[in-house]
Amino acid sequence: MKTCGAKTRSGDPCKNAPMANGRCRMHGGKSTGPPPEKMKGNKNAVVTGERETIWRFSDDERSWLSYVDRDVLIQLDHEIDLVTVRERRMLQRIDELTAGNEMGPVSVDRSRGEDANGQSRHETLHAEAKLERIQRIEEALTRVQNTKIKLLQAKFDVLSRIDKDDEETRGVLRELAQVIEFSKKQRDGEGD
C-alpha cells in the first residue's frame, strides 16, 4: 500500500493514503492560496465586489471618474436611487418566491420518502429551501433599508446646513423628514 511519505512535525514519514498527486490531503491537498509574492492585487476571493480592496485606478477608471459629478446632493440622490432600485428588486424576488415562480433551481433532491403529513420528502425539502431563500433576502433587505435611512439622513443633514432661511429648503427638509420617518416605519413593519 502506498503512503504519502511527507515529513510530519515529529519528523516521521506520513502514513496517510495519497491522492493522485502522490501526497495526502494534508500535505498536498487543496491550495492554501497564492504565493506571497502574488498576494498583492489577488482577486481570487472577490465574489460580489462589495468589499473589494482597490489599490489603484486603471486608466479607464480614471477617465470615467473625471465625468462623475462631485456635488454631494447629486451623489446622495444617485445612491438613494440605487438603494431604492435594489430594495424593489429584492421585494420582487420575495414575491416571485412566495408565488412559486422560482428563480433558478433549488438543489434539494434527496430521498423520496414521505413525512408524517403524507407530503413527499422532496416537497418538504423544497419548501424549506424556498423559506431559507426568502429569509436571507429579508435579512439583506433590512440591511438595504438601513442604508437607505442613513442616506436620507445624510441628505437631510446636508440640506439643513445649506440655507436654513430659504423657504424652499425648509419645505424640502420637511418632506425629507417625513420620508425618513416613513422609511423607518416601513423597515420596522409598521407601515403598509
Automatic annotation (TrEMBL):
Keywords: Coiled coil. Residues 1-44, 102-122 are annotated as: Disordered. Residues 127-154 form a coiled coil. InterPro entries: Putative_zinc-bd (IPR047675). Residues 109-122 have a biased composition (Basic and acidic residues). This is HGGxSTG domain-containing protein. It comes from Alicyclobacillus fastidiosus. The lineage of its organism: Bacteria, Bacillati, Bacillota, Bacilli, Bacillales.
